[in-house]
Each structure stands twice: as structure tokens, then as C-alpha cells.
Amino acid sequence: MKCEKSYEHLIHKYLDGDTSSEERKRLEAHLNECPHCLGHVRELKKAIAFVQSASHIEAPANFTNQVMANLPQKKSTSKTKSKWKR
Amino acid sequence: MEAIVKRIILEVKNGDEQAFAELVELYKDKVYQVAYRMVGNAHEAQDVAQEAFLRAYTNLDSFDSNRKFSTWIFRIATNVAIDRLRKKKPDFHLQDQVKGSENLTYESQLAADQALPEDQIVTMEMQEWVQDEINQLPVKYRTAIILKYIEDLSLKEISDILDLPISTVKTRIHRGREALRKRMRHL
């Protein structure tokens, strides 16, 4: 538990794919002997996997028609531009 | 993709309103998805996504077509969603005392939601649960986590969408990940 804070930054750097090979080796060596940090990494990876498991949702079937039905008045000339542009 | 988008935008700018439907078709699922994950329900997600496209249409002249349209529409959509969430803030606090009661707060009336009992989790739709956990995140972290892990965008793109330095985006993702870890670790 003691070392968790000092390694936390490195763990996140590792999850972002930003670690140098030297840093990665250092982290891996530490994880081999520190069950707390290893647990921390596993919990983070699990949380990410849960979020990534959220299935992709699609817009409702009538979506495009609804947007098109609500479009503001079409501009005819550049003179009228300021009227409808907000 | 970008060439098609450029062509469509030019058509719309030249007055072909119907060409905008093509643009909506191309991006509706991505925009709706971000909206849904941000606000947490289908009804409001539709409102937010629709509003985002209407704002894009109205402001199309200000869109720099050398940039990615997806970045721009995501920026509009996240802003609309954040505005919506701000307005929705509850007008009472969980620590307020329940009217006509002594020492009874709304908080004490709620079942402990920190760690749901195991059997409840099993019966709860997994999807619903993940969405619920995402909605528990502070909006700043929620937005970054959604763009990173659900939309699968690069840190550079997220930084463009949110108009924040990459270092800030990273910090938000780190904090979001830690918050999710703390809530999800017992499963």
C-alpha cells in the first residue's frame, strides 16, 4: 500500500502507452514483487474493460428525418444571413 | 471519408439543404452515442444529438473544412450535453432534512449504492450498470472517459474536441479511471 502513490503515475503512463522501455521494465519489476500495485493495475484494467464492454448504440430510426424537419429557414441570399444566423 | 464530407459541406453551403441529411446519416450514430453516454437516457440523448446537428447546420459557415468534421461535431455535441447536465442539477441536496422529520436526511433514505449486493448486480442488466457507473463520474472525467474508451479516440483528437491541452486530457482520464476502479473493483 505504501508504494501505491509513487507508482500510480507510472501505472497511468503505462496505460496511456506513454512509458519508455526503461520505465516499463521498472514497472514490471515492481509489479512482480508488489501485490498491491499489481492489484491496482488489474483493477484499472478491469474497469476499462467494463467501460469498453458498453455496447455501441445507434441513433433512433427516424433521427435524420427529425433533424431535417427542424432545420431553420434556408438562407436565400447573403443579405438575409444575419437574420437566421445566431 | 473526409473528401465526401468536404463535398457535402460545400453543397450545403451552396444552398442545398437536403445534402445536410447525408452528413447527418454519416455521423448520427457517433453523435447519438456520445450524447447517450453523457446524459444517460434515450430521450435526452435524442434531444442533445438533434440540437448538436442543428447547431452545426446553423454554424456551418464557421466550420473550417481543413479540419475534421467529426472533431467539430463532437465538440458541439459534448458542449450541448454539458449544458444540459448543468441545467439538470438537482435542486435539493441529499444531506437536506426530509420535511416533517427529525434527523432524517434524503441520504439516509437511500439504499447504500457504494457497493451493491452481489445478487442485485447479477440481475441488473450489465449494460445498464456500466452506464450507471459512467453517470456517477463527474462530468469532466465522464466526457474524457467516453471519448477515450467508448469512441476510441486518440488523446490528440480528444484534446481538439475539448479544446484542452493533452496533459489536461490525460489527467482527466487518469482521474476518471481511478474513480471507476474504486467503484468497480469489488466485482
From TrEMBL, chain B:
InterPro entries assigned to the protein according to its UniProt record, in alphabetical order: RNA_pol_sigma-70-like, RNA_pol_sigma-70_dom, RNA_pol_sigma-W_bacilli, RNA_pol_sigma70_ECF_CS, RNA_pol_sigma70_r2, RNA_pol_sigma70_r4_t2, RNA_pol_sigma_r2, RNA_pol_sigma_r3/r4-like
Question: What SUPFAM superfamilies does the annotation carry?
Answer: Sigma2 domain of RNA polymerase sigma factors, Sigma3 and sigma4 domains of RNA polymerase sigma factors
Query: RNA polymerase sigma factor 70 region 4 type domain: which residues?
Result: 128-180
- Per UniProt, residues of the RNA polymerase sigma-70 region domain are 23-89
- Keyword vocabulary terms for this entry: DNA-binding, Sigma factor, Transcription, Transcription regulation
Q: Does the keyword Plastid apply?
A: no
Q: Which family does it belong to?
A: Belongs to the sigma-70 factor family. ECF subfamily.
Q: What is this protein called?
A: RNA polymerase sigma factor
What are the leading ranks of the lineage?
A: Bacteria, Bacillati, Bacillota, Bacilli, Bacillales
Gene that this polypeptide is encoded by: sigW
